[in-house]
C-alpha cells in the first residue's frame, strides 16, 4: 500500500498527537477485535521519537507497522506514542506502556545516547526491546532494525565526489548529535570524501551537526558557512531532505545555484526540489514499509516463541554488545530514477511530488 493523501494522514496524525500530549497510548484494533471479549495474544508498544526531522514517523512508520502487525495477528494490540522530541516524555511513555501490559517495545529513541534507561526499565519488567531505525547505545537491546546507515552516507559522499568540481569546497550538515544514525551517515560520507580532502581534490570548508535536525538551525549554519567561505561553496552534503531544504534557502539568498546538494528520506518536498526545481540533486530513499515489516516480523517471532535468526543479516556494536541486526539497503534517487523507485514502489505519487505543500 502506498502513501495515503496528506490530508487523511494529517487528520490521523492530529489525533495521535493529541492523545500523545495527554500521555495516552493509542490502542489500534480491528472491528473484529472490538467485537471480541478475548484479550489480545500480542500487545506491543511502538514508540516513535519526534516529527521535526521528517514526517515519516507519523505518516509512514506508524501505519506501516500497524498494518504489518495486523497481517500477522488481526487481534494484535498496538500501543502507539510519539515523544515529540522529549527524552523524559519518551521514558514516561515506556513506563506507561509497560504498566499497561506491553509485552515488547519497539523504540526509535529521541536520544540514542541517553536511552539506556529505557532498556533498564524494560529489563526490570522482563520486556524485550527492539531498537527501531535509531540505535539505542550502551544497552543490551534484543535486536536492531534499520537501514545500512553507513551506506547512506557513502551514497551521499559518492554523489558529492562525482559532481563537485575539482578543488571545490564542500559543506557538510550532518544531522542531530544525539542521533547515532547521524554519526553513521557522517562516517560513511567521510569514508568516501576524506581521501579526496587529504589529496586536495576537494576541500572541507565547514562541517556541523544540527541539533534536533532542526531546519531553522540548519539554515543558520549554512549561512555561517557561506560567510566563513565568502560564498565559495561548490557542494553541500546535507544528511537529510529537511537539512537540504534549509541549505538551499541559504544558497538561494546568496544567488548560488547549480551546485550538488544531497538529501535523505525521499520526502515529497525533497523530490519536488530534485524533479521540478533542480535545486536538490539527490536523496536517499529508504523503503520504510520494508523496515516496518522487518520490525513487525521480528516482534511477532519473539512473542510467539519462534527463532528470529532468519531475519538477522548483521550485527551492530552499540557500546554494550554487538546487537543482532536487520539492516536494509538504501537506494539513491535522482531526477533520472524517481519514476522507477519511489513512484513504482507506491511510496508517493506524482501529485504529491508536484504539490508537496498541498498534501
From TrEMBL:
Q: Which InterPro entries does this chain map to?
A: Bact_Solute-Bind_Prot2, Peripla_BP_I, SBP_2_dom
Query: Which SUPFAM superfamilies does the annotation name?
Result: Periplasmic binding protein-like I
> What's in the keyword line of the UniProt record?
Signal
Compartments where found: Cell envelope
Q: Ranges for the Periplasmic binding protein domain?
A: 47-307
Q: Which residues form the signal peptide?
A: 1-34
GO terms for CC?
A: outer membrane-bounded periplasmic space
Matching entries from PROSITE patterns are given as:
PROKAR_LIPOPROTEIN
Q: Pfam families recorded for this chain? A: Peripla_BP_4
Q: Name one GO molecular function term.
A: carbohydrate binding
Question: What Gene3D superfamilies does its record include?
Answer: 3.40.50.2300
Q: Where are the transmembrane segments?
A: none
Q: What is the protein name given in its UniProt record?
A: D-xylose ABC transporter substrate-binding protein
What species is given as this protein's source? Alicyclobacillus hesperidum
Amino acid at each position: 500500500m502506498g502513501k495515503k493523501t496528506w490530508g487523511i494522514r494529517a487528520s490521523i496524525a492530529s489525533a495521535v498527537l493529541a492523545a500523545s500530549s495527554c500521555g495516552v497510548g493509542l490502542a489500534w484494533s480491528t472491528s473484529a477485535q472490538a467485537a471480541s471479549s478475548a484479550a489480545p495474544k500480542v500487545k506491543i508498544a511502538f514508540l516513535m521519537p519526534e516529527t521535526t526531522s521528517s514526517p515519516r514517523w507519523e505518516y509512514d512508520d506508524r501505519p506501516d507497522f500497524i498494518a504489518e502487525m495486523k497481517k500477522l495477528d488481526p487481534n494484535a494490540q498496538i500501543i502507539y506514542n510519539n515523544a515529540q522530541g522529549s527524552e523524559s516524555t519518551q521514558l514516561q511513555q515506556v513506563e506507561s506502556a509497560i504498566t499497561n501490559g506491553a509485552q515488547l517495545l519497539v523504540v526509535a529513541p529521541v536520544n540514542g545516547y541517553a536511552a539506556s534507561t529505557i532498556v533498564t526499565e524494560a529489563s526490570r519488567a522482563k520486556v524485550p526491546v527492539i531498537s527501531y531505525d535509531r540505535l539505542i547505545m550502551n544497552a543490551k537491546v534484543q535486536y536492531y532494525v534499520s537501514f545500512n546507515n553507513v551506506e547512506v552516507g557513502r551514497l551521499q559522499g559518492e554523489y558529492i565526489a562525482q559532481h563537485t568540481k575539482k578543488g571545490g569546497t564542500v559543506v557538510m550538515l550532518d544531522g542531530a548529535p544525539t542521533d547515532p544514525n547521524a554519526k553513521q551517515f557522517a562516517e560513511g560520507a567521510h569514508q568516501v570524501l576524506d581521501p579526496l580532502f587529504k589529496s586536495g581534490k576537494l576541500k572541507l570548508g565547514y562541517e556541523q551537526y544540527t541539533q534536533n535536525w532542526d531546519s531553522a538551525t540548519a539554515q543558520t549554519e549554512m549561512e555561517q558557512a557561506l560567510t566563513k567561505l565568502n560564498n565559495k561553496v561548490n557542494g553541500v552534503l546535507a544528511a537529510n531532505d529537511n537539512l537540504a531544504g534549509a541549505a538551499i534557502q541559504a544558497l538561494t539568498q546568496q544567488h548560488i545555484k547549480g551546485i550538488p546538494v544531497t538529501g535523505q528520506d525521499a520526502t515529497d518536498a525533497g523530490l519536488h526540489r530534485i524533479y521540478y526545481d533542480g535545486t536538490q540533486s539527490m536523496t536517499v530513499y529508504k523503503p520504510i514499509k520494508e523496515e516496518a515489516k522487518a520490525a513487525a516480523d521480528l516482534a511477532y517471532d519473539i512473542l510467539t516463541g519462534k527463532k528470529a535468526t532468519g531475519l538477522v543479516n548483521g550485527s551492530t556494536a552499540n557500546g554494550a554488545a554487538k546487537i543482532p541486526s536487520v539492516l536494509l539497503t538504501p537506494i539513491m534517487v535522482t531526477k533520472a530514477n524517481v519514476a522507477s523507485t519511489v513512484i513504482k514502489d507506491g511510496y508517493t505519487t506524482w501529485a504529491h511530488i508536484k504539490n508537496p505543500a498541498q498534501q
